[in-house]
Design goal:
The protein has 216 residues and is α+β, with helices and mostly antiparallel strands. It has two domains: 122 residues, SH2 domain (SHC Adaptor Protein), CATH 3.30.505; 58 residues, no CATH class. Helices cover 19% and strands 25% of the residues. It is built from four helices and twelve strands; from the N terminus they run ααβββββαβββββαββ. The strands form four sheets. The protein has a six-stranded mixed beta sheet. Strand 6 and strand 7 form a beta hairpin. Keywords: SH2 domain.
Length: 216
């Protein structure tokens, strides 16, 4: 079996895309929570955002901890990436300051942290499908400075229930193609027959047909 790293998993997703607005009082409470000792505790993450992060950016066996939206301040949720889904499991803080996960009890946050990061437990629900908790999903994610250069930009309008693209200028940089003598001859004959005949250049992209006054 290949050796698995227990280092916090860091994805290329932007953390700002998954942040959730909360009151200042709630934010202060979460930031002082002992769970902040774990880099994979996400204090402002919702269930939906956790699922999007893990499904889109994390391998099977990734996991993160977040506050429970329904269980009160002493209950947390462990969100785990399985092969085809994300499942959510309860982590409780007991009145005697111990923590409970599944059938196990932990004296403090450090013991809970050690259990997940070093012992890498196998977990599963009622379905019987199990997974090894191998990749803690870190909340410390740097935003990637990757951008796409805009090479095409045009407005559209509806014509007979179809989207037609209009150029925002009279010219457009079309692919280089050699003019055929037959086509040039046809243009000249059409101009002789119809004096107001004008040449237009068309480009078909998928289901969008665009036209331009000049080739360049």
């Amino acid at each position: 079996m290949a050796e698995m790293s227990n280092q916090p998993f860091v994805s290329s997703a932007s953390p700002r895309a998954t942040s959730v607005s909360r009151s200042s009082e709630s934010s202060t409470a979460y930031l002082s929570d002992p769970m902040m000792k774990m880099k994979w505790f996400h204090p402002f993450l919702t269930r939906h955002s956790a699922e999007c992060m893990l499904i889109d950016n994390a391998p099977e066996g990734s996991y993160l901890l977040r506050p429970s939206a329904t269980g009160g301040k002493d209950q947390y949720t462990l969100s785990v990436k399985f092969s085809q889904s994300v499942q959510h499991m309860k982590v409780k803080r007991l009145p005697d300051s111990r923590y409970q996960f599944g059938r196990s009890f932990f004296e403090n946050v450090n013991a809970l942290k050690k259990h997940f990061e070093l012992e890498r437990p196998i977990v599963g629900g009622e379905s019987g499908i199990t997974v090894v908790l191998s990749y803690p999903y870190s909340r410390e994610v740097d935003e990637q400075h990757l951008y796409t250069e805009v090479h095409h930009h045009a407005v559209t309008r509806m014509v007979n229930n179809a989207v037609v693209e209009e150029s925002d200028s009279d010219s457009y940089d079309l692919p280089d193609t050699d003019s055929s003598p037959e086509l040039d001859s046809l243009h000249r004959r059409l101009q002789q027959i119809t004096p107001n005949w004008k040449v237009r250049w068309f480009v078909l992209r998928n289901t969008t047909l665009s036209y331009y006054k000049t080739k360049q």
